[in-house]
Structures are given as structure tokens and as C-alpha cells.
Amino acid sequence: MKLYERSERKRPVDYFTDWKEREALAEGMIPLVGKLYRKDNVKTYNYGHPLVNRSVIEIMRDHRAVRQIEENELSEFETFPVLQALAQHDLGHAHVDVGRIASRYYFGGADKNADGSHVDLQDYVSHQVEELIGSTRKPLKEPLDVVLYGFGRIGRLMARLLIEKTGGGDTLRLRAVVVRKGCPNDLIKRASLLETDSVHGRFDGTIRVDEERCAFVANGNEIRVIYASEPDKIDYTQYGINNALVIDNTGKWRDKEGLGLHLKAKGVSKVMLTAPGKGDIKNIVAGINDGDIASDDTILSAASCTTNAITPPLQAIHDEFGVEGGHIETVHAYTNDQNLIDNYHPGNRRGRSAALNMVLTETGAVAAVGKVLPALAGKLSGSAIRVPTPDVSMAILNLRLTRATSIEEMNEYIRKISVHSPLRKQIAYVNSAEAVSTDFVGSRNACVFDAQATKVDGQNAVIYVWYDNEFGYACQVHRVIEKFAGVRYELYPKD
Fold it and tell me: In total, how many domains does the chain have?
């Protein structure tokens, strides 16, 4: 549903002056956001865009993105006073979307009482978070140690996310990474790969190496580097790590027997696999079936990047239009399992150079959808084309719907889903005829719906979604491990 009236801001008399005023407000937001985050462990957002550790320009750019999608003129002029009002209170741990609170007040009619009298903004904000004022509830009873087993593409991005989201240290704490020893200066090389990334840019912070303790320190987090090749032989307790959640990024073990080796190690209580699980391992897609996580689960899978990308839009479309069948084609960035130049590979076609060829191959993502969404089991086929790009992929959903629709109805429905539904962390929305793959590097959503590409002919629809198969997937994994660990944040405003 669309909550707010379209609001068009008058053209500024002087664009430069208007920019400088908004820039000053964005600058003023940063200490307020920091205080709320580090003192109260309150994470603030603007329509799902995190405000924590954002630059002035990034904050301003996120406001612009809201204006384009929500079709109102939400700006720093509206969100800054809301942040000021929040900062007046002693708040408990929570996630607060200041953009949504501001929109409801300025554009949703919340600034007026039923009799037409004015509602003070401070009073309105206080009422929105009244349950949070003075709250001592923590999102987790005690901090949980996290270990990354494997430190490749996904492992390093998970490290970046865990470090970024450490906050006051009350929830998930990255304590160690486990790798095989490579060379004498292995530790320095590992730290360097975390600090600099050819696709995702430099690490947002500082990293130093402590060779004496075989660790690197990232934004104050001491992360021990443990060299091992057998997961069940590690004693994590000697590193002060207890009751840890191990995230296995290697893909070497994908069944309960193999992943269960981690549980035999001292100091481990849970295991998360960043690849599709086999057998009766639950494959969890955040926002879709994370409610299936039980308190006694010890091994879970976060499925694949493609499964995470296609399942949310399939769920949304099935809920509204019904999906009778279809074919999913993924155009996927090449991965480390392919060859840079032609060489032997056990997989069909994958022996040919990833940098020079489009490689037609299979995908297990579509079959995995049936496990996550039983209603679509057996209704979809799929294949994949690996292409010479290092990151960001596309899924093309060629669907046969239960009822006829139109391009306009489909696009508007997904736009609303991306802004106002529980799937807003999974589905983003873009309506630009100039969008290309590199525009979505660093996207935190599971996928980005491309409205300009939508094709509809009665009951036949072709939907295009982009997805950062590295960072976007890592964000989905992080959402799952928070659920797995029992992290529960209060969300404001209450829907």
C-alpha cells in the first residue's frame, strides 16, 4: 500500500544554497547517528538504508533514492529533526527507521490531530518509540562468538559485515578465522586481502597485524587467525572462544556428517553453511522461511546467492498473481571455481576461460526454490550462463501467471513491496533505463527489480532482477545468522 500523498517540493530559488543547507544537515546527522549507535546500540535507517558509518554524500544520495522510489520529497530537512528528537531520549537496543517516521509525520497526516490541531514533532517521535524509552532489553542475552571457517570471497565480505555491525559488542563478535597456512607472510597477505578488494573497494576502517598473537585488529576487533585443516581437531577455547557459531565458507562439506565435524571441536555450538545444504539440512532464505529456524537447530544452510535472489520476488509475485510455471535463466558473474584460461575442469564447459567466454552451465538454485517455497516445487526449470564480469548477476524470471496483469500493475506492485512490505530488505526497486550491472555492486538487498525491463503479455510475464552475488548474498547470510543466534531487535516505527 502507498502510505503517503505525493509531495512536490518547490524549486529552490538557489540550487547551490539549497544543497549547502542540506549538506550541513547531513553533516549534523553523523554525530547524532553515532551517539545513538555506540551509546544506545540504536541502529538508524532511512527507508532501509543504514545511516551508521555513512558519509555526508552517501546520506544525501540515500535521501535522493527515497524520493525516486517513494514519490515524495523526503529530504534532510525532514529527517534531521527526527534524529534530533530521538537523541533526546535514553533508548534501548533497536532498529529505528527515521525516514519512515518522518514520512508519516510530514506526508502521512500524522502532524495533525483528528480535530485539525497541530501535533508537535518531538511529541510524535516520543510516542512512536515510547516502548523503547528507558528499555534495558538487549537483542541477545550475551554476546555470541563467531568464527569464519574459510576466508575467500564470501568469508572476507562476512568479516567486513560482522565488523561493521559490531556496534557496542552486545550481539555477534567476530573472534577468529580458520585457514590453511599458505606462506611465511600468510597473516599479512590475509589482512591485505581484507583491507583492499578489487570489486568492493577498501575496507571501511583500519586494520593492523599483530604477528605475536597471530591476529589482525580491524576497527578494534581482535581477530585471531587459526591455521588448521581438520575442523574437529581445533580447540577454540584456548583462544577464549566459547559457544561459537562457525560460518563455513569453504563449501567442502555440505551434509550433516561433514558439517557436524565443526560441532566436535571444543567451543562450538552452531554451524552455518554459505552454500546449498544437502540431505535434510534446512536451506534458509532470510525474509522467506527464516521462521523455520528452531531453537534446537545446530546446522543450517543459507542456500545459494541465486536462490536468495530469485525466491523473494517469486514469493511476492506468487502471492499476488499466482505462478503456474516458468523458466529461470541466470546470467551469472564468473567465480573462482572457473579457469582464467582454458584448462581441465570436471564440470561441463567450465574448463573454458571464464574471462573470454560466456559459459552455459547448470544451476541448482531453481530446485532449491522448491525446498524454500514448497508451493512452487516442480513448477520451474532453470539454467545459467556464466559471463566475464567479476560481480553482480541477473536472473530472468519467465513466468506463467494464474491471472493476467499488465506492466504497470506488476511494476507498481513490486515498488510497493520494496518499500512497505516485510520483503523490503530482500527486494529493492530501480526504474532507470540506464541501469547496468556495476550500479549494483555493494547492494545490500537480495535482489533489485528492474522496472524498465518488465515484459507482460496477459498471463505471461518476464521479470528481470539484478543481484550482487557476493555482498548482497553476504548480507542475506548475516540476516540468517542473526536469526540463528537468537538476535531480536525491536523495529520502529511499528507497522
Answer: 3
186 and 91 within one domain:
no
Picking from 399, 403, 398, the residue whose alpha carbon sits closest to that of residue 321 is 403
Q: Which domain holds residue 114?
A: 15-128
Same domain, 458 and 334: yes
Tens of pLDDT, residue by residue over 168-205, are: 788 999 999 999 988 889 999 999 999 999 999 999 99
Annotated active-site residue in 183, 214, 305, 447: 305
Residues 6+ positions from 35 with CB-CB distance below 8 Å? 87
Alpha-carbon torsion (115, 117, 123, 129), positive or negative: positive
Please check whether residues 124 and 156 belong to one and the same domain: no
Sort strands 359-361 and 323-333 into parallel, antiparallel or unpaired.
unpaired
Q: Tell me if residue 475 is catalytic.
A: no
- pLDDT tens column, 29-55: 999 999 999 888 899 999 988 999 999
Domain identity same for 197 and 313: no
Give the whole-angstrom CA distance, residue 468 versus residue 441: 6
50 touches 161 (CB < 8 A): no
Q: Is 283 part of a structural domain of the chain?
A: no
Residue 290 DSSP code? G
Helix (H, G, I), strand (E, B) or coil at 56: helix
Do 314 and 463 have their domain in common? yes
Q: Name the H helices within 1-147.
A: 15-40, 56-70, 76-87, 98-106, 121-128
Cell of 243: 559457544
